[in-house]
Amino acid sequence: MEKATHRHKKRGTEYVLIGIGRMQAEDWFKDRVGEGVPEAVDMREVAIYRSATDPNEVWVRPREEFEDGRFELLGASE
Which among 24, 43, 71, 76 has the fewest CB atoms less than 10 Å away? Predict the structure, then answer.
């Protein structure tokens, strides 16, 4: 099993960052918070990561959410 690279601060669960990818979703839009303006999701960067305890559990979320402070980078000594 690979060593965890990140920990979700709120839940305490650990993950292995697989890499950064791009969302390909030509007809998928989201509303910008509080503005009601559709924003294209196509080609948006996403973080791809998996559970440190279950390698079959893979997650994807917008890169900015992965890097906004809800996950902490685990140091080499952990």
Answer: 76
| pTM: predicted TM-score of the whole model, two decimal places | 0.81
- Digit-coded pLDDT (tens) for 58-69: 999 999 999 999
**Strand ranges in 1-78 using DSSP code E only, listed in sequence order:** 6-8, 14-22, 29-31, 38-40, 45-51, 58-62, 71-73
By the 8 A CB rule, do 15 and 78 touch? no
Task: Identify whether 65 is part of a domain.
Answer: yes
Domain contains 1: no
Domain count, the chain: 1
Please tell me the total number of residues recorded for the chain in this structure: 78
